[in-house]
Amino acid sequence: MRAVIQRVKEANVEIDNTIVSSIGKGLLILLGIEDSDKSEDALWLSKKISSLRIFNDENDTMNLSVIDIEGEALVVSQFTLHAKTKKGNRPSYIVASRPEQAIPLYEEFVLELEKQIGKSVQTGEFGAMMDISLVNSGPVTIIIDTKKKE
Fold this sequence. Notes:
The chain is an alpha/beta fold.
């Protein structure tokens, strides 16, 4: 699994000119799932993201997690995170999982993240054309890949 995590003041998902999900202060997580991903990846990634200390404390040091600040989370599926661009100019998405494999892992990740942060997690709509609006705070953007764990 590959995730782009953005610390946000607010974020929302709009589908067909209708806002379907929104959060205040917290994390916008763009999640890409590939064929080799398993349940262990969803569990590891949810624990890692929920524990990331990327929110400022009283000394203005990034020392608090989304749990510590009682923040919110919004997870949006994004198969394009697994784009391969080595050949030509049209990206290949050959390693991105098909919906029948990706949807259960996406849902498992969301459930695990809810357990970790102790509150409901907002989502986009898997496979839909979505418009994502956000106010990136910092900006702070972190990329995590469960295959590299770095």
